[in-house]
Amino acid sequence: MANPPRPAPQPGSIEKEFGVPIPGRILPQEQWVQTALKKVPQGHLDWQQLFGRVAPVVIDIGCGNGRSTLASAVAHPDMDHLASDALPVVIRYATRRANQRGLANTRWAVIGGRELLADHVGPASVAEIHVYHPQPYYRADQIHLRLITPEFMLLAHKALLPGGRLILQTDHPGYWRYMKSIVPVFFDFEERDTPWPHAKKGLTRREIIARRQGLTIFRGEGRSKPNLDLNTAIHLAESLPLPTFNADRKKHPK
Q: Which residues of the chain have pLDDT under 50?
């Protein structure tokens, strides 16, 4: 028997996931907006054209079902947010939620994080880059798919304004140790031992699940080093190790 259709969301209601509210209230349908970036144009994105205003830009890479971007967009209406994920299905969920909440300061795109930064983000054009719980990939033949690499750090440093923020979070101790070994080369980096203030019960779906499983959440914030020129950054990236750590948690105690 087919599942019955989901009831239409009621204006003013707050959705919950695992008992934790999804940021933002659902608006009457006449106040919904369109936030999908159905196709990423060739070349560097024109932020003013994309959002219709001049504002600091936040990029959320691997946004999943959108919880982290929604939280930031609700908390910071003066900032514009581009969220990306390689999976179309999660972007559909996220886009619908942003539309229903009237979050015109968001755009959602199906694209990988490295491709986004390398091909579509101009130098020194964004204020913040957020990466929450990147996939560690457990099989040896998938190690090359890991997002956080020296090249990615180079791309993030290049995309950010001087002093721009890089936010990282994971529940994988091996991945976290690797991040801490390369991120400080490009960023003034500090670990954070408490939840983010605007999402104390969990910033992402993955974080909520991991906390219920009793896993440690590793969080950190970096500021782009302003005096690191491009040639030096390229040389540093070429000298750093790739993320070839063993992803087996049992071999990487907390």
A: 252-254
